[in-house]
């Protein structure tokens, strides 16, 4: 075996070690989703929705780059990973919660590129999916009322807040905003979530620091309160 053949063989061997959807298909034991084929099929359906716009998607560079990120007139940059593997990376991080440093090693790309890919896809998914999260009218709910909720015909949405732990910010002002007295830890109050009686997510608020109370977040979600026709005195009591 000459030197060129040896290097080709090494390259092929290393390529198989990189985490990618193609390699996962060849070796299901590496599946980070727990070998759940249903999750994979659902993920592929979503990818088919995102793919047309993702083709022209430019990598996220903060709020200042928002218009260019989703421009339909500009073709996206040359990519280290295929579109499907960028989407796969995003889903792995969402599902398993791996650090960007870990994903950089698994996908054989830089830490900075992992961050750019993840942020870009999250913003694309937000833009394309936010219209699916809609609070149904009373009429729609009544037409589709479940047997379990027959005694609660006036219920349109069930709401609650949740929190996730975050690292201790370096700036004192930021620490003050994210420290949760309830959790005794730095947290993000991870949205006010609204669920319909049929168990569909129908409302998601913006994110708040852990210092914010559930009541404050609820009263600050004016679009939700407006749709529910809540009396203004609700937040003044």
Describe this structure in words.
- The chain has 237 residues and is α+β, with helices and mostly antiparallel strands.
- It has 2 domains: 128 residues, no CATH class; 98 residues, no CATH class.
- Helices cover 46% and strands 11% of the residues.
- The chain is built from 11 helices and 5 strands.
- Strands 1, 2, 3, 4 and 5 form a 5-stranded antiparallel beta sheet that branches.
- Keywords: Metal-binding.
Structural class: alpha+beta
Q: What is the terminal-to-terminal distance?
A: 82 Å
Spans of 5+ residues with little confidence (pLDDT < 50)?
none
Beta-strand residue percentage? 5-15%
How many individual domains? 2
Q: Mean of residue pLDDT?
A: 76
Task: Name the shape in a single word.
Answer: globular
Rg measurement, Å? 22 Å
Assembly type: single chain
Largest sheet: 5 strands, antiparallel
Question: Can you give the helix content as a percent range?
Answer: 40-55%
The arrangement of helices and strands along the chain is HHHHHHHHEHEEEEHH
Pfam family, one: DDE_Tnp_4
Organism: Mytilus coruscus
Domain Transposase Helix-turn-helix: 79-130
Protein name: DDE Tnp4 domain-containing protein
